[in-house]
Amino acid sequence: MRIFAMIVSKELLSFLRSVMLVIVVLYSFTADVYIAGAGIQIKPRNVVVGYVDETGGGISQKILARLHKPEFKPPIAFLSQKKLSDAIFNKEVMVGIIFDSDFEKNYKTGKKAQINLLLDATAASQSLTTLTYLQNIIFDFQAQNFPLVLKSHKLFNQNADNHSFMALTELLSVITLLIVILTAIVFVKEKEDGTWDIMLLTPVNPKIIILAKSFSQVIIVMAGTVLAVGFVLFGAFDVPLNGSFWAFMLLTFFYSISSAGIGLFVAAVSKDVMQVAQLSIIIMMPLIFLSGAWTPIYAMHPIFQKLSLFSPLRYYIEGTESIFFRGTEFIDLWPYFSGVVVLGIILYWYGFRKIGKLF
C-alpha cells in the first residue's frame, strides 16, 4: 500500500502539477504521432522532372504525359543536357529525362531505344523511389506480348498505405524515448531542486522509492499509449488491429520496464536534465539502429545482426507489427515476449542497482 500511495499521491500528482511536462507528453502521444503518420511520405510527391527531347515528337511526349499529379509536377523542357544538369545541380529539378535524336526511330523500328536519366542522388530515398515509378511507367507503356501474366498480392497492407505504418513506428519511438527520459528526470529533478537529501531522510525503504518513481513513469507512458492508439492510430488513420489489443498492451508494459531500467542508469550518472537528454540520445540511438526500425535486420552486417539480439526494441517492434498487421496469435508471440522480458529483467536490475548506490 505504501508504494501505491507514493505512486498516486506523490509521483503522479507531481507530474500533473508540471504543466510543461504534461504538455510535452500529450504532444508526443498525439500531435507528434499524427504528424509522422500524415506528413512523412515514402512515395514520391510533387517531384520536379526536367527533360530534353531531341526527337521532336510523339512517343516521348506520350511517355511524359504519364507523369502527372500528385507524384509529379508538370515536366519542364530544357534546350540542352547542360542546362538540365545545371538545374539538377542547383536543386531546381530532381529527375532529368533525356530522349536522344534516335530514340523514336529506334523504338518504331524495333531496335534498342534508350532513355537517359539523371537523378539527384543526394535525395537518395525519394529519387530511387521515383526511378522505380519511371521504370514501371516505361514497362507499362511498352506493348509486350509475353505468354505470362504477373499478379501480385500485397500481404498485411493491401492498399500499400504508409500512413498507418509511419504512425505506428513513430508511436514506438515516442514510447522508447519518453520512458527513458521521464524515468531519469524524476530522479534528477530531485538533485536539481535540492530535495535529494530530504528524500534520503524520509522513513521509507529506498527500494520502495525507486520502484514508486520508476513505475509511476511506466503508468504515464501506458496511459499515453492508450491515448495515442485510440485517438490517433484508430481514430485518425484507421490502423488495422488484426491481433489482440491486450497482447500489445502487455508487451508495451514489459518493454516500458526494460526501458525504465535504462532510465535508472541514466539518472544514476547524470547531474542535471541536460545530461539526461544527452546520455539518453547516446544510449538509445545504437539500440534504435540495431532494432531494425531504420534498416531491416537481414540487410545488416552479420556482426550487427547478432548485436541486434541485445536490443529490446527489436523484439518490441517485431512483436507489435505482428500483432497489428499480421494478426499473430498470442501463443505465437512468445519469442518477442521472451526477448523483451529477459532483456527487461537484466536492464531493470542493473539500473536499479546503479541508482540504489546513491541512497
TrEMBL record:
Signal peptide residue numbers: none
Transmembrane annotation, as ranges: 12-29, 165-188, 208-233, 245-269, 281-304, 333-352
Main location: membrane
Keywords from the UniProt entry: Cell membrane, Membrane, Transmembrane, Transmembrane helix, Transport
Keyword Membrane annotated: yes
Record has Coiled coil as a keyword: no
Membrane topology: Multi-pass membrane protein
Name under which the protein is recorded: ABC-2 type transporter
Lineage: Bacteria, Pseudomonadati, Campylobacterota, Epsilonproteobacteria, Campylobacterales
